[in-house]
Amino acid sequence: MTQALIVVDVQNDFCPGGALAVPGGDEVVGPINKMMEGFETVILTQDWHPEGHSSFASSHPDMSPLETLEMSYGTQVLWPDHCVQGSRGAAFHPALDVSGDLIIRKGFRPAIDSYSAFFENDQQTPTGLEGYLRSRGISELTFVGLATDFCVAFSALDAARLGFQARVELAACRGIDLGGSLAKSLTDMQAAGVQVHQG
After folding, report:
1. Most buried residue among 12, 71, 131, 132 by CB atoms closer than 10 A?
2. CB 88 within 8 A of CB 102
């Protein structure tokens, strides 16, 4: 099998009631669980921040959530504290099937955020996912999860850039849409050759 399903950040803090809730975030759980039946390889990603992470607005005096700050690696959106290691918010949604092949944890380095399943936000520090996929002979990736316009899009764009065949199933994704970010992410993905499926 050359195909894998990549389930991005379906965690409590990104679902209703969480610290960084994506509207309708929990609606993806059922469709994702069903999709898993059609893939031999399932990989889940998990946002996994230490307390006081540099992407948290609370780490920067006089800054508020959703403001931006220039970091050494570029512009960083400052978020509410979320997905803190070992917290309930960092745990996967309780109804999500987590019996996949691999869990990739990201964002655990205090000084740099990580949206993509492949690289941290410097676009250089790898998570190890590319090597795992190549060693397994997997070349076709389907992305689902949260949020469409951030971690899902960054992952799919990196997959395309690395030469994988990338597809995003929007029915099993939900977005934040921060200042038009959802429309931009869809345009960027399509321009990069990612198959964006509306079904």
Report:
1. 12
2. no
Run of H or E including 166: strand 165-174
Establish whether the linkage from the previous residue to 147 is cis, with ω within 30° of 0: yes
Report residue 166 as tokens: 């990338």
Q: How many CA atoms lie within 13 A of 75 on its CB side?
A: 4
Residue of 187, 65, 168 whose CA lies nearest to 117? 168
Q: Which residues are catalytic?
A: 9, 106, 151
User: What is the signed CA dihedral for 115, 117, 194, 71, rounded to 10 degrees?
Assistant: 30
C-alpha to C-alpha distance for 111 and 121, rounded to whole angstroms: 10
Pairing of strands 102-106, 41-47: parallel
Strand partners, 92: 11
C-alpha count within 13 angstroms, C-beta hemisphere, residue 136? 20
Predicted local confidence at residue 1, as pLDDT? 74
Interatomic CA distance for residues 42 and 3, integer angstroms: 9
The per-residue pLDDT for range 108-131, each reduced to its tens digit, is: 999 999 999 999 999 999 999 999
Q: What is the pLDDT of residue 68?
A: 95
Average pLDDT on 89-101 reads 97
